[in-house]
Amino acid sequence: MRRSEPLRALVRETVLDPGDLIYPLFLCPGEGVRNAVSSMPGVFNLSVDEAVREAEEAASLGIGGLLLFGLPDAKDEQATGAWDDDGIVQRGLRALKQSPASKKLVLIADTCLCEYTSHGHCGVVVETADGFDVDNDPSLEQLARTAGSQARAGAVFIAPSDMMDGRVAAIRNGLDKAGFAQAPILSYASKFASAFYGPFREAADSAPQFGDRRTYQMDSANLREALREIDLDIEEGADMILMKPAMPYLDVVRAARDRVGVPMGAYQVSGEYSMLQAAFEKGWLDRNRTILESLLGMRRAGADFIVTYFAKDAARLL
Ligand code: PBG
Fold first, then answer.
1. Number of structural domains, the chain?
2. pLDDT digit string (tens) for 106-118?
3. Range(s) of the domain holding residue 55
């Protein structure tokens, strides 16, 4: 049954479609700005006007949605840039809404504080006897406020990536009170403390200035804990869930698929992208085949959709 392409196509169990791909964009202040991210060839920090152009290209390729990150004008301890109605992601959302591309793309706002805090952590930092702690509950209020502001600016989906406990419930509540009862939540339900986020922290300028994220992101060794986090987020009101990284955690994707009914996605993170790009540059891997095979593996593991920096490349190939 593998003798010809029509035959293989007939019995193929898993398909990739550009509409299942979500393309991350990093928005930055200015006009006409396209700053290359050195550790992620092909990825740029984009001013809002350039992001609109990028969105139009993504829409014409049939890509399903955009995931928006922001590099604010200034950072502070309180992450005020995250919930400022005139913040960078909010400005981007309003501009994208004006573009015809927004009729074809689902606009998803990444909701987190790490790009906006001067210390680079995903929540509120407090001093303790033995150093510092990321204080869970005060962070929830800031996240809910950020989500409300993003919804007001036109985000279709709110995607909390901070991993504080109880944030889906806090954001759901905040959105309902702010008049966005219909705005759905895509929760990064299972997010591991991973070395594979390294290049992202250059792209989003969000590396923690001290300590690390292991007190709030998950230990790589834990599958059962991932499933518990997923159950909790769905109970709290998550409409869809996201798992990351993807390639080293496909067992988590499969286990989640077998357990819950909500739509779910896998995030092929920055480090996965960068290591493949490095191998392509060296001529060690075939670019086109490897991109599609890596994404197909995530779909086969059970992901309905995939967040990937290869979205445009993959959509062109498909
Ligand atoms: C923000 C966030 C991170 C990523 C997505 N949202 C970084 C982190 O947790 O340090 C990583 C995405 C990637 O590596 O491509 N909390």
1. 1
2. 999 999 999 999 9
3. 17-317
Q: Is 255 a member of any domain?
A: yes
Q: Which two tokens stand for residue 97?
A: 């809404």
φ/ψ of 111, rounded to 5, equals -110, 105
Q: How far apart are the first and last CA of the chain?
A: 23
Of the listed 75, 104, 191, 312, which one is catalytic?
191
Token output for 80: 């005020």
Q: What is the pLDDT of residues 163-185, one digit of tens each?
A: 999 999 999 999 999 999 999 99
Q: Does residue 191 have an active-site annotation? A: yes
**Which residue minimizes the CA distance to atom 11 of ligand 1?**
197
Read off the CATH number of the domain in which 211 is found: 3.20.20.70
Decide if pLDDT at 130 tops 90: no
Cα–Cα distance for residue pair 318/291, rounded to 1 Å:
11
Q: Which of 121, 187, 200, 243 to mutate to test the pocket of ligand 1 (most atoms within 8 A of CB)?
A: 200
Q: How far is Cα 41 from Cα 85, in angstroms, rounded to an integer?
A: 31
Closest Cα to atom 5, ligand 1: which residue? 161
- Please report whether residue 5 resides in a domain: no
Q: Which atom of ligand 1 is nearest to the CA of 196?
A: 14
